[in-house]
Amino acid sequence: MGNTRRYHSPRRAEQAVQTRRAVLAAARDLFVSQGYAATTVAEIAREARVAVDTVYTTVGRKPALLREVLETAISGADVAVPADEREYVARVRAAASARDKITAYVTGLVDVQRRLAPVFLALRDAAGGDPESAALWREIAERARNMRRFAADLRATGELRADLSDDDVADIVWSMNGTEYWVLLVGERGWPPERFATYLIDAWSRLLLV
Fold first, then answer.
1. How far apart are CA 205 and CA 208, in angstroms?
2. Distance CA 104, CA 89 (A)
3. pLDDT of the chain along its 210 residues, tens only?
4. 4 burial class (0-12, 13-18, 19+ CB within 10 angstroms)?
5. Which CATH fold would you assign to the domain 10-73?
6. Which residues pair with 160 in a beta bridge?
7. Pick from 30, 29, 16: which is nearest to 59 by CA?
8. Helix H or strand E segment including 170
9. Domain ranges for the chain
10. Closest of 192, 183, 173, 40 to residue 121, by C-alpha
11. Which CATH class is domain 82-210?
């Protein structure tokens, strides 16, 4: 018997990546423009110019689409990237001083919020009436534990206020890095993202450091 060789086509693989991107882009546009509940998979398929079955095989059902749209907005990549593997987190860890760590964190946060804010608001609205969206919303809220790692990074510099626990720092950072805060200042008050970044770096430096 002859050897069986697995066929691999770079062109086919690239086409699959492009199809996934088109599906997620269509889902994002429709979730943001008309809401999660009002959007159907058929509409997403039509917007992406693919068959409905292709949407299911490429990403999945509508809850999976919402999750992937959210995760890729956070990561800025075609797939979800764990927090510890994101580039700006590496820059935070590598920074020597507490202010440099804050600057690296805020710079990364601004990049994320540019992509994430509209999707986050769509998820928030969906969570009010859809159980699977509500579960995803709770899961995102639980990621506040990542802020404790940031607090530990700051404490390791010796520059963190002694009267603040890691939980205190995590709560302050979590509340001020939220999309709602971004929307209030950038979306509603018209702040340029650069002004938001400068303000947040200054605010955290004053609030958290000695």
1. 6
2. 8
3. 455 555 567 888 789 899 999 999 999 999 999 999 999 999 999 999 999 999 999 999 999 999 999 999 999 988 888 888 999 999 999 999 999 999 999 999 999 999 999 999 999 999 988 999 999 999 888 887 889 999 999 999 999 999 999 999 999 999 999 999 999 999 999 999 999 999 999 999 999 999
4. exposed
5. Arc Repressor Mutant, subunit A (1.10.10)
6. 209
7. 16
8. helix 166-176
9. 10-73, 82-210
10. 183
11. mainly alpha
List own/partner pairs for 5-8 with CB under 8 A and 24 or more apart: none
Return the closest-CA partner of residue 87 out of 70, 69, 74, 68: 74
Alpha-carbon gap, residue 169 to 4, rounded angstroms? 58
pTM as predicted: 0.87
Rounded Cα distance between 146 and 60, Å, is: 28
